[in-house]
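Response to reviewer comment R2.3. The reviewers asked that we include at least one raw input/output pair. We reproduce the pair for GTP cyclohydrolase 1 type 2 homolog here without editing.
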Amino acid sequence: MKLSEIYAFLNELSPFEKQASWDNSGLLLGNLDDDISKLYLSLDVDENLIKNAEENSLFITHHPLIFKPLRNLSEMAYPKNLLKEMIKKNIALISLHTNYDLSHLNAYFVKEILGFEKFLQEDFLIYVDVNLSFYELCERVKKRLNLTNLKMSFSGKEKLEKIAICTGSGGDLIPNVKADCFLSGDFKYHQAFEALSNHLSLIELGHYESERYFNESLAKYLQNLPLKVIMSVSKNPFQYF
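Raw output as returned:
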């Protein structure tokens, strides 16, 4: 299958034009005329993924390996070191980031992982009407995500009627949130104060923890393509002591 055909399929599934203005989703490495017989799904590109991948294959990742413009490839610092190894093996790279959050991943996370069947999506935010206490919601999240600990910021409002959810880093959306509690992958320190000043509780899911379902959410759409699809499990760069 031509790389151009795969790109067109993904663009129809989750249009790249819908990505956030700061994002860099799309074809990041490769020639559209290349023939692809094997693709790897992964949250991120890492050394193990490249090492174990066959030559002339395709990586489809959630996080773009290239965010900022690269002036050269002469250094061995991240991400240049990974790009060099991919070029040696003629590995192409397509990233589906915020466009896929918008079209699929946020809704998949809310329904399939957190188990909320009814919800309303407004751009990158998903709203769910609930009848839970704040700590009941915390327990639900811990159980569904198999977490030992949960980082949160409690506004003092115990009874929750509406919650908002966004996978990844949703802190910049706090001014737009119209809910009692906001769940997202990670928040900055000052964003917690901003939320509390607006009587908004926060639950930090973990960036990796909220997006590690990228592979399984996308794989079902690729199963009818004439390609061998391999799902690679990315490693969380953070550990807990």
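The chain is about 30% helix and 20% strand. The CA atoms of residues 51 and 85 lie 9 Å apart. Further pairs are available on request from the corresponding author.
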